[in-house]
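Human:
Class, as today's exercise, you are to examine the entry below, and be ready to discuss the fold:
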Amino acid sequence: MTTIPLPEVAVLDLAGTTISDEGLVLDAFFAALRDAGIPAGDARCEEVVRRMGESKITVFLDLFDQDLALATHANQVFEAVYAARLASGLVRPVPGARDVIVHLQGRGVRVALTTGFSPKTRDALLDAVGWRTMADLTLSPADVGRGRPFPDLALAALMRLGGSSVKALLTAGDTIADVRSGLAAGAGTVIGVLTGTHGEDDLHGAGAHLVLPSISDLPALLTSGDGVTQGSPAAQDNPRKGHTTQ
């Protein structure tokens, strides 16, 4: 059975990992693109799907060739549409996600919830599920400098929450960008989950140490700190100490 060392800091993604929003992120993205005159089926729609998990304003800047005015307007449309959908009550915690956060905190793990949303949209999402004070820390790209796939969110969380080493850091998310961010940060455990945008092959291909059906599967795999995560440097040195959970 795969085991995961108990981390000091766990950095968990929001939409698609700990909160299910029924595809509202993509809906809001596509609404912003339609507002800009980009039809469904355009290659830029495919790029949005591929880059889920990244900073929203950064994605819009790239889609509009660094035109700040167009990107800012598109981001405003995105946030307005997403806020309206939040008000409809469609979002809810991923089953078992709240229990995971409570479990981690009960074992002394500091928990950060991170996202590619602006702080305003992030807080609206947290309020929609009653989680504004749930975690020890919540972070958006605007709080740290750069979003995923850069390591800033994960490393900022580790430092602000007093982690002693990147080896004591665990990250989990549903997108390729989440996985790449965790790897770029040097996290001891980088987990992909299958409750959001990208599939198992995508997450393994991005380099996830483990891919789990849901974040709710995490507590059963945690050890007291002596375990080895499959795919991590330690597991590569000791290949019989772990295997990927399918």
Observations:
- The first strand starts at residue 9 and ends at 13.
